[in-house]
Amino acid sequence: xxxxxxxxxxxxxxxxxxxxxxxxxxxxxxxxxxxxxxxxxxxxxxxxxxxxxxxxxxxxxxxxxxxxxxxxxxxxxxxxxxxxxxxxxxxxxxxxxxxxxxxxxxxxxxxxxxxxxxxxxxxxxxxxxxxxxxxxxxxxxxxxxxxxxxxxxxxxxxxxxxxxxxxxxxxxxxxxxxxxxxxxxxxxxxxxxxxxxxxxxxxxxxxxxxxxxxxxxxxxxxxxxxxxxxxxxxxxxxxxxxxxxxxxxxxxxxxxxxxxxxxxxxxxxxxxxxxxxxxxxxxxxxxxxxxxxxxxxxxxxxxxxxxxxxxxxxx
Amino acid sequence: xxxxxxxxxxxxxxxxxxxxxxxxxxxxxxxxxxxxxxxxxxxxxxxxxxxxxxxxxxxxxxxxxxxxxxxxxxxxxxxxxxxxxxxxxxxxxxxxxxxxxxxxxxxxxxxxxxxxxxxxxxxxxxxxxxxxxxxxxxxxxxxxxxxxxxxxxxxxxxxxxxxxxxxxxxxxxxxxxxxxxxxxxxxxxxxxxxxxxxxxxxxxxxxxxxxxxxxxxxxxxxxxxxxxxxxxxxxxxxxxxxxxxxxxxxxxxxxxxxxxxxxxxxxxxxxxxxxxxxxxxxxxxxxxxxxxxxxxxxxxxxxxxxxxxxxxxxx
Lengths: 315, 315
Description:
homodimer, alpha/beta, Rossmann fold, 7-stranded parallel sheet, 10 helices, 7 strands, globular
């Protein structure tokens, strides 16, 4: 990749940017001199975000704009991108950061059809349709832009509670691995970020439905501040790093599941792989044992919830 | 896992079993003495499959039945399972083999919205809804059954042409990793199979839309006969192996992307990891170069297809 990429003077398009990681990413892009288009659904949160963006601008020439669209549909994603490009003479953004997404942990046998479909929409569709619209526009205009996807530590491994969420974060990894390869045809760069849990409004929301056993397994995790995560994300994008991770545990898991994804420093990869070789299997065996021990408590919980009183094929 | 599992006298439920891997799996289960319920959409293919199943039965007590349902909806999956269980007094199957699925390779910028949605339905939904229905039934009836998911080599890595397909095969890996963990709560076993390309009707179908560069990258691959793949799948399930692969290349890729998934023999894993450490990165660099070299030919192809004449935001 040679020379470092810089957001200064560029047009950056950020989804899910009214709060959490998306907002922090947008703010840092503004502080580094980018024009930033922020897309999300909630008008009130967007207005509040715009106020923050404005106080962080470093030049009067930066264009800071908010757009309210539903990005879970292909049409919404296309319209949002088109609207944001109008201010720039219809030119594709230099970089799109696809940060939209929310986690809804739930027991598999207690999930509803909408839990699964909702995670497809909020995680996979928001990233797929926007990256699709952006790739087509960049390819048509021969813009050598960047597409940045946001997966999760749970796109690298998974465990009890994440049957609706983790598959979609895995799907984003599959999408990024494909796009990294395919968009070489157009000189479009692809990046994927694997953040761990972050102290965000979304994190508070997900803890409301999170199964007790899942919380227990996560109790020694250290969630990250979203502005710290955003800084790591941006540093990775500037350096041309395909696969970006911020915390130690995620780096260990990632090293054990790299497959053909490009990796930066091979010596660093090797060290994390050795740690992972012993650590990850030991971690899983510990978690497996916790789950097995929890089985009778879980059985009592399901009894109390009336799970066994329903017809055998009940949803 | 100790004692080996045997399909003899068990009720096995196989989806996507009117042809290809599903049919071969069903036939081997019949030859080993299982009662087999076969589910697919196409009535004529199901009738032909039943004739084959009947000629392979080893005992008059085996129940061999076909069911035509649309498994891409939660309701269809639930109804199909319920119908198949009726013959067994409503009892959950001992094992469900979720083989439904089809690949539709296509260039990202040429894909239609339905290409993406179709792959969600044929790959992710067919496995999700059936595993969901089966897990709930097994949990309610305290049946310590087995749920077998079928991913692909392209659930372990991906490249140009598979932007609609690979993400869903990755999603199945995320689902299986979660269910392996979560269904420990109920004593339900989970397996995932990663077959390479197979000489099946589906393989002939996918080659019709496969981009030229994708075919070129795959030209030295050796597709497998589906009955050989089915034998490896069944052997893995009998041995209680969580992650099952049949061919050398898939085993190499898998060793580099194992994460917290349980693995069998660690010495074997180590050997494949060492091969993968050098081989996979070299493979990717070679593929990346092929794609870059193909860029100008691809540009001419898109020109000829009128891609650049459309409005910039055209679908």
